[in-house]
Amino acid sequence: MFNRILVPVDGSSRSLQAVERATSIAKAFGGHVFALTLIDPSPFAAVGHIGTGAHGQQLDPAQRQAIAAIRAASELVKSQGVPVDARVVESHITWKGILEFANILGIDLIVMGAHGQRGPEHLILGSVTQQVLRHAALPVMIVQDEAQTDQASAERGRSRARPTDTTLFWRAAKELSERIAQTRRQR
Question: Could you tell me the residue range of the domain that residue 180 belongs to?
């Protein structure tokens, strides 16, 4: 069902939570995780980063941040025994880069954080997550920040200890995956 899962990462806690969710889905379905970090190659992408000078010098901090984010994601996936393909890709428009990459790789599911790190692009285009949701032709799972979800549940007088519809769904999906695997072994 979900054998090829794309998870865009930017180093934020929300994107790492998305990596954890993508990894658990891939593990349940015997799938593969594709971790992706995008950087903008334009000379204005480094606004807000330390450094001035030539285009390459301005982009260097962004490249270091992207490499750190993709390494953290890759290590997290590998630690669970799930195959991972981790890449840093240049794209002028982040959400378009995510969808183009998903199309090229034949991705079955995109898993992403509700919000990640924001920059000048957010002010102009709105949330990358919103744009991916709006334009995707494949399933997209949005992972909320667990701390905010816990706080919102507490404010509504609910306990997070109670299974949510999402938790029940993933339990059912895992059971189905295990039944399929068992059936394959019996053949």
Answer: 145-187
